């Protein structure tokens, strides 16, 4: 068996840029499985390597990119493109599926998913995570650390000058998961308009990823980051204790990472094997243990599951489900209203 190696290629086109990682097959004859994914390769690689060990004759090609760029790349690459599409931008994923780009798949693993994580056996939730606030605790008095959006608003008004240019959030025009969480905020809270105004007045800085926000927090370029994905936030906080992760007490959005098999998949059998492995107890355990991702299954011991969270009476946790309500978020006219509101409120950081 030849030695495994990893090849990183930076792909650039005038429209899209993405990183391509390859795990070559270790036995013959081989087949190729093409996956597009928004998860950073270090987070998803333990799962990919475990799948490779189980199916050594499958050559794995993983293209990593931000959620919006992957969505655009998926469309641009048709009728070719990936066998499997993975992303946390649920609205973009659901739109692709609703537009006919997914191939239905039914198995014992897909059947055991809760109904809100499986839409028509075409798209499947495989992890969930909260959208959180992260602060650098060395830059705020403990009494000033915001536990909710109302406390964040109060802090921004009281310390507007000292926090100017020191608040970070996603660039919702360029990052799909950023738009999804912000559009959900708009639906969930009456303080949405005030929060948007406060961000604009504070010259909030816009970022392309959770990791870039967390890096700026650790470097003390930011004091507070808003709507960071919880898996990244918790991973960074374990390494950098100055970072404090906050689940907002008014409500905490839960986002699902989802997967679907492309209708134009060229390696359908390998795609089905991968989806089953992704949803299996073994795959879910790997994601939880090695990647700090929250399992969708409720039989992974030692982990809070989304099912247990949403059953809590008066729970702060508000999941976004895989259902037709996502089409309202991705509706182009409504999206343009949200983006226009954003543009009129936000000011460019100098």
Automatic annotation (TrEMBL):
Leader sequence residues: 1-17
Superkingdom to which the source organism belongs? Bacteria
User: Which keywords does the record carry?
Assistant: Signal
Q: What is this protein called?
A: ABC transporter substrate-binding protein
